[in-house]
Amino acid sequence: MALAGKGRGGDLLRGAMLIAPAFLFLVAFFVLPLFDNAMRSFAQPDGQGLTLARYVQFLTDRFYLGVIVETVVLSGTVTLICILIGYPVAYFLVRKSGRWSGLIIFLLIAPLLTSIIMRTFGWQVLFARRGLVNNLLVQDLGWLERPLQLMNTPAIAIIGLVHVLVPFMVLSIATVLQTIDRKLEESAQILGASPARTFREVTLPLSMDGIGTGSILVFMIANGSFVTLVLLGGGFQTLPLLIYQQFNTTRDFATASTMSTILLVIALACLYLQLHLVRRKGTAY
Q1: Please, what's the largest Cα pairwise distance for the chain?
Q2: pTM for the complete prediction?
């Protein structure tokens, strides 16, 4: 017994030594900066004591509430569009693509290996006032007298975000679709269900975990999107953009820290939902 206990103690010590570098790295460069940022949001203007005044102001001021609502609505809109685009692509990838599945997966993953800045600049090359689309319509084809105003509109900003995030939705849904037993769908069709009813009552409910995981992932990333909105415009006033203004224009670090903490709380809420989904899926099996 003593030898067995000593062996377990040695294993625990070796395990602790293996994870210690990663743990210390996370604490030093992730946890402590977040903690310092949160403490700045609670600090009194004179540095003496703590206060909730900034949070009260932020959560009662109509302008700041509007920024939170606009951030959530934009993220929700992008998430919904990603579901509508991503589910058919994921379904085709898993059920219909056959030998083309490798090519489709490559096309999905390849953009993720490219800098988001380069991808966003691609939209400017296409749709700027003197971009390829306007040059084609105005100069080459002569269909328009003047260039279209495609950039700096809400639509192009949403399209840019969907372009960046839809691969995450496709991969999340495809992963779950692959685990669905095809015999369940075949049984439903043998019992007389049409393909549409089989999809609606068998496939779609069984793939809800993938939709949920992809939605949370897309929503959380869209919630913190900054580069795409800065480069493509659109007139959105979201929390990341406001944080950038507070840091670089007004130099109000305490207010920026308050906004950052609120954005972090939203992200943590999304992570909690994702963890809840994973646990529910684990218990279901």
Answers
A1: 89
A2: 0.81
